[in-house]
Amino acid sequence: VLDTHSPIEVVLGFMIGIGAVALFHRALVARPPVALQARWLAIAALVLVAVMHGTRWPIEDVVRNLTALIRSTLPQCA
Question: Global pTM?
Fold first, then answer.
C-alpha cells in the first residue's frame, strides 16, 4: 500500500545521517560555545505567533507536489 524504502536505502540513509551528525559535531567542537539568550527566542516566537495567527499553511499539498515532481523527474526514486 505504501511506497517504502528498501533495506539498502534505509542503511545508506542512516549512514549519511550519522556522517552528517559527525561532521556537525566536529565543526561545533572546534568553536567556543555561543551564549544564546532565551529572551530573543521568546521574542521571535511571539512575533511569529502574532504574524501567523489565524493563517494556515497547506504544507501537505506542497510536500505532495514536491514528491510527485521528484518521482517524475528521477525515475530511481519511484
Answer: 0.40
Residue with cell 540513509: 13
Q: What are the pLDDT digits (tens) for 8-63?
A: 988 999 999 999 999 999 988 887 877 778 998 899 999 988 888 877 777 778 88
CB 77, CB 70: distance < 8 Å: yes
Q: 52 exposed, middle or buried (CB, 10 Å; 0-12, 13-18, 19+)?
A: exposed
Angstrom distance (rounded) from CA 10 to CA 76? 15
DSSP 15-63: HHHHHHHHHHHHHHHTSPPPP--HHHHHHHHHHHHHHHTT----HHHHH
Which 3 state secondary structure label does DSSP give 4?
coil
